[in-house]
Amino acid sequence: MSLxxxxxxxxxxxxxxxxxxxxxxxxxFADCFQCAKCxxxxxxxxxxxxxxxxxxxxxxxxxxxxxxxxxxxxTCASCLKCMERCPQGASPYHVIxxxxxxxxxxxxxxxxxxxxAVSQILETGLMQTVQKVTTNKMETFDREKLGLPxxxxxxxxFKKIFLKALEEHEV
Amino acid sequence: MKVAVFWGCRILTSQYAYEMSARQVxxxxxxxxxxxREMPCCGDIVKSINAFAAKxxxxxxxxxxxxxxxxxxxxxxxxxxxxxxETQHLLRSDEKLREKIATLLKDEKLECPSNMxxxxxxxxxxxxxxxxxxxxxxxxxxxxxxxxxxxxxxxIRPSTIKRVDDPETPRKLDELIQALGAExxxxxxxxxxxxxxxxxxxxxxxxxLAGSKLKVLQEKGIDGLIxxxxxxxxxxxxxxxxAATTIGSKLSLPVLYYTQLLGIxxxxxxxxxxxxxxxxxxxxxxxxxxxxxx
Lengths: 171, 294
What we know:
The structure holds two protein chains of two kinds. By secondary structure, chain A is mainly α. Chain A has helices spanning 14-23, 37-41, 43-48, 52-61, 64-69, 81-85, 92-105, 112-124, 156-166, and strands spanning 133-134, 140-141. Chain A is elongated. By secondary structure, chain B is an alpha/beta fold. Chain B has 13 helices and eight strands. Chain B starts with a strand and ends with a helix.
């Protein structure tokens, strides 16, 4: 027995829901009772129409496929207010992060900047390159000129293990 | 007190003023900083891509901190602070994860320490150094300055793991500002997010969030905004002009790191505090202080 979304004729995918439950460990999103405290405090709600309560409902009904393919999961500002205020101890923030991970695994739409940051980590160990800063008086400074110590970049071994870790999906 | 310090990508690659001012003020207050052998990313951005790989990265930083032989670790960035605190919490409670990560760390002969105390600038100064000790070190009171605090979202939430201050009514940064003689405004928009995390996918929305907060603060007639996170500071200081254009307002609000403000009160040379690197009009605060002392 299962539901069908009459707007899109989408069928729920309870397997993925189970997979997410495992992925999230103890954070039981199944306990969500739709009180909407998360949405009322959501940083991204007003500007980008992220509705965490709706995300929770869809995941619980098994409609993860639509969410994974949707751009909405990339609008979370990670302010953690939803997680803090949830009376049920469910965490929309972690659900959204798990959906993002699924989008990556399934080759869905992932904002390029995230992928760039990860390749940067594979290259230097840091998510962005060292920048020179220009002051309001148009003087340019780097770490050395400011008297700051050199950055100790991670070893090649780290990069190899990081690559291995990226292939793990926790389930 | 000797603490290991993990700066994180944002501070190391662009937010130099935070690092400079922290390296100046902390030793003056009896906190010796020990850098890690390696300075990698904490894994924050990787959480969106692969939660496990992110936890591995955070655990590896904890292991590098453990190598120093110290049991206190300072993490001045809100996002790194949350990433490492959460991973430490999970490693303690989830045996399966702990074993899996230990296996990966073993390849580099690294081991996760079980007793690392994680600090942020706010609680290190407020709880470990103490307000009284800070007051003693103030050479020039900042009396007459009307300031506002911005606490990074991820330093105070979620309260299910050890955080720096109360998740809904943080007070420590305000008390730290008051310890220097300045006033710290209570305002309804205090918990509003800077939007930094959205710059990866929704730049305009991110700038709107930062700009709106700056605008309400500017309208309250304050002298400046004080923050303690490189991500928030980038939004409020370096991107203030872009934020103004995005929301269609004129913004001109001085924004300083708390460590810079503290350095001013301790009368440390301006250049050593990286004050020449701030992009917001901080000379207004400095002029007011000079005028007042004449």
